[in-house]
Amino acid sequence: MLIPPDAFGIVESEVYRSSAPQPANLEFLRTLKLKTAVILSPEAPTKPLLTFLEENEIRVMNLGLKGWKPGVDWRPVSEELVKEGLELILNKSSLPILVMCTAGINQTGILVGCLRKLQRWNFNSVIDEVRIPPPSLPLPLSPLCPSLILCFFLNGTVSELCGKQEPVHQRAVY
To answer: Among 53, 74, 137, 147, which residue has the fewest nearby CB atoms (within 10 Å)?
Structure first.
């Protein structure tokens, strides 16, 4: 039986999101024929997941670990993480791609929300997508937390990107 990871969802054609996959989810992931796995949380992936990714020649981009810096200035989601994550999603050679974080909600939700902003989605629709998890997951304990963080990005980093680019439409990648 194929079991998707918790918080699994289809963001766009060949762009998927989820929580960190468990061993029971690996056969399901194989059906996606992934080229790239993007890890947004600072925790290292499990050994079974790393072995699966290596055996299936899936490129691993651990942006969360790369961006993690101990100290007072640490933030759960950095501008660099969002920019690099968006570049990977928008790069056709990275597709199909799975974007994941520990729960599949916080960092992943913010990155997907920023993608929607680039696609010129209505602000309320962007916030709704960030606040409402995929059907496979119950509502988060604090659904406003990712929404509040997203507001900072939409007012800064992503707004700058939007001003410099043509609108990114659904399913349009370069």
So the answer is: 74
Q: Which of 101, 145, 151, 162 is catalytic?
A: 101
Q: Would you list the domain boundaries of the chain?
A: 9-164
- Does the annotation count 162 as an active-site position? no
pLDDT at site 69: 57
> In whole angstroms, what is the distance from residue 62 CA to residue 20 CA?
12
- What is the DSSP secondary-structure string of the chain? ---PPTT-EEEETTEEEEEPPPGGGHHHHHHTT-SEEEE-SSSPPPHHHHHHHHHTT-EEEEHHHHH---STT--SS-HHHHHHHHHHHH-GGG-SEEEEESSSSHHHHHHHHHHHHHTT--HHHHHHHHHS--TTSPPPS-THHHHHHHHHHHHTHHHHHHHHS----TT---
Residue for token pair 């406003």: 144
pTM: 0.78
Give the residue ranges of the chain where pLDDT is below 50: 139-144, 157-159, 161-174
Give the pair of three-digit tokens for residue 113. 């929300």
Q: Which CATH class is domain 9-164?
A: alpha beta
